[in-house]
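re: that chain from earlier
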Amino acid sequence: MTENSTINEWLTIPILPCSSVVQTLEFWEMLGYTITYKQTRPYQYGVVERGGYALHFGYLKGLDKQTNSNMGCLVIVGDAAAVYNEFAGRFRQTTGKVPHSGIPRISRMKPGATRFTLTDVAGNAVIFVSRGERDQEVWEEADNRDQGRMKSALTVARRFRDYKNDDVMAAQTLDVALKRREGEHPLEVAEVLVMRMELATAMNDEKALAECKAILGQLDLRDEELLLINKRHSAG
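^ sequence. v structure.
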């Protein structure tokens, strides 16, 4: 047996659950996938493909899509940001908006991020990750103990927001740092504030948004400095 035949001898195909194969396949087709298999009798099963790889779906009776987010898979792509922008454009074209909440939804992707999560109509969480080492590097930045307080808060909050889809913990991390901002560099404080304001907007927290804007106004930064910070944290 050759080395190559040994590698290809076994093939694993995860099957994602859904309450309607037809509806699920149509959703992924909207995102640019091709339906390569669809069966409705005697049982529901379907496959979509793109970029040489496939997602398989099977009907599950009694599926609660609201609690199905524990199911999903990783999709490794060349450029997650480019895929995100395409998906966002397809959402806008089809529904008139990019859904960041509810089902289906797509997580917000920030400049420099290496992944995003797409939750489909069945509640499956499919994580698209850029190929390469950068994704791991971004995750490990939060473990660097040589960072200052503001920088550390940013990296930990980014881990919560971008890798765990936990805006609440990200916001709490930044709030703790801001309470101890005295003596910190104004530009670093401003960056924490801008990230916290983005989270407040996403969470519809008008009180936190107003408080951050007030603190930011007290830092007396130049317009060009604020512009650069806002660009780094502008919504995806």
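The chain has a mean pLDDT of 89.
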